[in-house]
Amino acid sequence: MKTSANLEKENTTGQNQNGPNANRPVHILTASSIIGDNVENKKGESIGKISDIMLNTLDGKIQYLIIEFGGFLGIGEKLFAVPFSAIKLNIANKDFILDMDKEFLEKAPGFNKDHWPETNGHYFDVDRHWGSFMGPNTGV
């Protein structure tokens, strides 16, 4: 019999822990289980970590993942609202893939943790910037 603790572990690790479906992937994860996860590019270079999730309140879908890039010991990092459709889950490595070079992020419009943009206006700017990036690799 599955207990609440077992179910919590499954929902935060992505693996069934016991029973007939043991070791089969769980296809739904909690938001808190991916915050702090590493984001790499296709070269395997770490390009940041997930620091937050932006939910669209009109349709209930994840709109963006907030990616923290650069900096040292919490100083100088930039945050990016990256469209959720641009990020792929790498189940084998338990991290996420964003198909771009670090140089792209260095030039991309970002913000810092003390100065979040007004969400509706930033939505337009982010989509305009990332629009040139969207394509076959993102599933869009």
How would you sum up this structure, described in words?
The protein is α+β, with helices and mostly antiparallel strands and 140 residues long. The chain has two domains: 1-33, no CATH class; 35-125, Roll (SH3 type barrels). Helices cover 24% and strands 25% of the residues. It has four helices and six strands, in the order H-H-E-E-E-E-E-E-H-H. The protein has helices spanning 4-13, 31-34, 102-107, 119-131; strands at 38-40, 46-55, 62-69, 78-83, 87-90, 95-98. The protein has a six-stranded mixed β-sheet. Strand 1 (38-40) and strand 2 form a beta hairpin. The protein is globular, with a radius of gyration of 17 Å. The termini are far apart.
> What multimeric state do the chains show?
single chain
Structural class: alpha+beta
What does the main sheet amount to? 6 strands, mixed
* Uncertain regions spanning at least 5 consecutive residues: 132-140
Radius of gyration: 17 Å
Distance between the termini: 41 Å
Spell the H/E element sequence. HHEEEEEEHH
